[in-house]
Amino acid sequence: MKVYKLVNDYTSYQMLQLDTIQIVEQLSREDLIRQIRKMTSSNNSSLIAIWGKVKSTFAPMTDTQAVKIPDISVWKGAGLVFSGRAHAYFKLMLEPFGEFLPVNIEGDDFYLFHLMEEGKVDLNNSSRKNDEFGEPETVTELKFDSENIEDKLLFKSKYELYISSFCNQTFKDLYENYGMEGLIFEDNLARIY
Asked: I want to staple 40 with a disulfide (CB 3.0 to 4.6 A). Which of 76, 82, 166, 191 is the partner?
């Protein structure tokens, strides 16, 4: 099964301007800073019960002239942002892999996708470079267990330190068939952007 790393197309599409501090301030729940901060990494607990009204904007990345708003984009590593249109197409299919948290962006409905699904890494065909203290620093080769991710449209990886979101071929095909825009599908899973 083919696997892709999801990457933003920064040259053509704007990015969500929302960080964890803004979220906890808007929710008036400073006590949740750790839980929200880990939202795009190791937090696999539901956040929907504590979620409330969150607002934000899109803006181009520095040194780009991007004006388009993406249908789907990456947010802070293993998080994703879905437009209302993308949410309508993918909501039911993606519910087993995470949850959609509403965000109002300049009057339009968007959704942060809190990805909670892990993909099993093929340790025989993956490798990491460690720092001087022996802690994992950089993934140099990354492969996933094909059987494990076959039915997982989206997933993340602790092995990769939750830096990215990944998808299988089925998700890519659906994205293209639905005419979605905003993502690049990188097949070199260890490539750093």
From this structure: 76
Does residue 128 form part of some domain? yes
Q: Which pLDDT band holds residue 114 (cuts at 50, 70, 90)? A: very high
3-state secondary structure of 32: helix
Contacts of 57 (CB under 8 A, 6+ apart): 16, 17, 105, 106
Structure-token pair, residue 5: 């790393």
Domain membership of residue 125 as a residue range: 3-186
The number of distinct structural domains making up the chain is 1
Summarised one tens digit per residue, pLDDT across range 15-31 is 999 999 999 999 998 88
The answer to the question of residue 21 being in a domain is yes
Q: What is the 3-state secondary structure (H, E, C) of 68-127?
A: ECCCEEEECCCEEEEEHHHHHHHHHHHHHHEEEEEEEECCEEEEEEEECCECCECHHHCE
Distance, in Å, from the CA atom of 27 to the CA atom of 42, rounded to the nearest integer, reads 21
Q: Is 193 a member of any domain? A: no
pTM of the model: 0.93
CB count, 10 Å around CB of 121? 20
